[in-house]
Each structure stands twice: as structure tokens, then as C-alpha cells.
Amino acid sequence: MSPQRRADGSLRHLITLEGVTRAEVLGLLDAAQRYVRKLGETPPSNRSLAGITIANLFTEPSTRTRVSFDLAGRRLGAEVVNIEVQLSSRAKGETMIDTVHTLESIHFDVFVIRDAEPGVVAHVAANVGPHVSVLSAGEAHLSHPTQGLLDALTVRQYKGDFAPLRIAIVGDVRHSRVARSAFEVFTTLGVRELRLVAPRGLMPDPGEFPGCTRADDIEAGIAGMDVVMMLRIQKERMTEAAIPDGGEYYARFGLTPERLRLARPDAIVMHPQPMNRGVEIDSAVADGPQSVIRAQVTNGVAVRMAVLQHVTRRGGGA
Ligand code: CP
Fold first, then answer.
1. Mutation test residue for ligand 1: of 60, 62, 139, 142, the one with most atoms within 8 Å of CB
2. What is the band of 25 on the pLDDT scale with cuts at 50, 70, 90?
């Protein structure tokens, strides 16, 4: 039994999308879709998580994930506390587990954790009480499961059926947790082709991403693709010497309007953000008619509402 499941098989934690079934993914996407509203409309809210207390514990920077988990919890009636890690006793050497146990003692029920160290999220999940759920908000280079789900929801909104789709994941795949969660979810959903497009130094090791095709040239790599998912260079996971020069990278691997014309005419462009404009993506593409980058952000709140309800087993309507 996966450590992220209860004895009855239900998902109690969400640490990775590996092993999350197609039925579970589609159920989460359907639940999330019910929470999506056009900008300008009143966001949905209900009281399904009333009485639940959620801690956002982020030891790496975040804008989208942290804000959307915060809003997702509040829109479901939960109490949400954003722990300022730099101002907490973690800064005095307290371990993550001691911090979590302290918060458990004052009735926190859900921990949303972003951490640069592999294994921390699973370690916390293995050391909390049985009523507590732990959600990854991004773990090292390994996993960003709610990002994978929001990416899948966005693709479904714009492209419909997953089966005929050819998806290119472009850029620093090697250091990307977004790419790994995208690989897991799109493999589970059965897309026609998942292609990794990266310069050699940013391509993952050969044993990783089984079943994906690979290209080390962006023009060949995105030709004929339905979805072009761009990635930021993860400088924080590289040595100084290994960080590519931004200008050279743009010349060789930046997504420009000219290069995008090689993909299908109706291809969508995605990016998890934060973006480095003029490095991996040109502003004319990021803000252009094929970009769905802002829709990804909108979908993030809806997906996190669905996930919070699922793991706490507090279903409820929009
Ligand atoms: N996509 C994403 O994880 O963005 P943040 O780092 O701003 O949360």
C-alpha cells in the first residue's frame, strides 16, 4: 500500500502523482472544474472544510502555490495559517518534525509543505497523527503534484481528449519537479506522445521519464506538437558554473513566435511560472494568443480546493 493512502485505499496525503489512478485524477479534475469561474465572476465558496485548520509551511519561495492553497482553504471554510518560516522557531534550529508536532498539538489537520530537500514531505507524512493529511506544494526537483493536476486540467479545457495529444516539455527538464509531475499525470492519462526537449546538460538521466521521446533541438522538438510546456532554468538547483548564460540560452532554446510556428497552429503554450522572459520564453509568446499561462494560475485554486476536499474526505458542491 502506498504511504500516501489510508488502509481503505483512499488518498490521505498527496506527495506524488505516481500511483494516483486515472479514475482518481479524472475525479479530481472534474471536481476542480466545478470550482472554475471566469475572471470577474464571484469565486465559488462553501463550508465543507469548516473546523479544519491548515498550515502552509513553505521553506522555498512561492507566489502561486502558496496564495492558491491559502485561498482554496479559505473558500472551503477552513482556517489557514501561513507560517513565516524565517520568523518561526525553525530559524532557531527546530526540526520540521518538531514544528509539525507543535502545530498538531494546537489542532492543525492539514500541512501543505514546500521544501528543497528530497524526502521531507514523506517524512512528515509518516510522522503525523492518523487524522492529519500532508500535501506537497513542491518537493526538491522531484514532485509538484498539484501543479501536475492543474496542468492536466488546463490541457483538458483547451484540448479535450488526452489520447491524441503530443506534448513537449521544453527546457530545464533535469531539475524540474513540474516536469516530473507532468510526466506522471500525462502518462496516467495516456497521451499519444510526451517529448522532452532540452539541451544535453539539462536533459534528465536516461533511466528517468520512461516512455518519453527526447530531442536536444527546440525546433525539431516542438514541430507538430499540440502542447508546448516551457520550463524555467532552476538556477537554485545548479552550481554557479553550470548555470547557462541567459542570452545564449534564449538564442538556442528560447520560445520565440518564429519557433512556435513550428508547432501545430492551434498549439497551446504553458509555463508553470515564475517566467524568465527573454530567457526561456519571449514576451510575445508568453502574452500571445496561444498562451494559456494565466488560465493555469486560475486553475490552481480550483485544483487545490478539489485536493483539499478529497484528502479530508469532505466533499461538497461549488
Ligand atoms: N508554479 C509554481 O509553483 O509557482 P510558485 O513557485 O510561485 O508557487
1. 62
2. very high
φ/ψ region of 242 (left if φ > 0, alpha if ψ in -120 to 50, else beta) reads alpha
CA of 254 to the centre of ligand 1 (A): 20
Instruction: Tell me which residue of 121, 225, 108 sits closest to 166, measured CA to CA.
Output: 225
Nearest CA to ligand 1 atom 1: 272
Name 57's bridge partners: 83, 113
Burial 125-145 (b: 16+ CB within 10 A, else e): beebeeebbbbbbbbbbbbbb
Q: What is the pLDDT of residues 246-259, one digit of tens each?
A: 889 999 999 999 99
* Per-residue pLDDT, 32: 98
| Cell numbers describing residue 16 | 506524488
Characterize 178-212 residue by residue with b for buried, 16 or more Cβ atoms within 10 angstroms of its Cβ, and e for exposed: bbbbbbbbbbbbebebbbbbbbeebbbeeeebeeb
Q: What is the pTM of this model?
A: 0.96
